[in-house]
Predict the 3D structure of the following.
Amino acid sequence: MPCREHFELTICIDDFPPAEPGQFIQVLCASPTYRTPNASKVNSEAIDVRTADAGILLRRPFSIGGLRRKGRRCEIDIMGRVVGPGTAWLNARMPGDEIDVLGPLGSPFRLPDSRAHALLIAGGVGLPPIRWLGEALSREGIATHAIFGAQTESLVPLTLTKPPTNIAEFSPCAAEFAEFGIETIITTDDGSCGVLGRVTVAMRSVIEQNPGAPLHVFACGPEPMLEAVASLAKAFELPCQVALERVMACGMGTCQSCVVKVKDDRAEDGWRYALCCSEGPVFDTNDVAWSD
């Protein structure tokens, strides 16, 4: 997966509980033996992420991007993008390093029946849960296609085995999906790889080329992208589920920090706040109170 700023790790864990696509883990991006330092001793200057844990206090959520069991042993794939000291620390891990993990957490995607056609849509680091969902759908015999979008070619975290088409036509160009028999469309904002434009450009073309198809849409990525996908799915009356991204301090509904505005007819104003970590991260798009 040659991709600027992104990294992928496989974590090996004994006796990991059952998990499903859409769920996530909370990772302590610091040594498992680390204890919160005395605040007066924390150095405010740049931290060497290879050796120091100072200031890494909260866990980071990572969607499960793949899971394989070998007896008691479980291998979990996660992917991230270096944006700060926590993800930089995680990116610097080497084989054999210990990582403190909590999970699985959250609610998973709900799979459609076998007569449905699944359309998977991912953007940026929203790829992992969609990739794992594609594997699950394939194993259930559900016809599945994928659309992946990025800003530019160097930010496409996929192994491209052939150049993707520059029109909205599916091809087995991405190894991570092709291994499960899933063909993919790649879009980039600048047209440097695949279709020029956002994922909704390809999504609209696919829907219009397949009128009446029993499409079920599943998506994960930046929230503006998810809102646009939800709007387009609603316009064509297609069921749609999205995995929302939030900063989660605890991941278990205790800190109340990862709120999502959802519709609720029982509430006085017709809406309420749901917790992304426990009621989500997967939501039906008709339940989310989007920005408009």
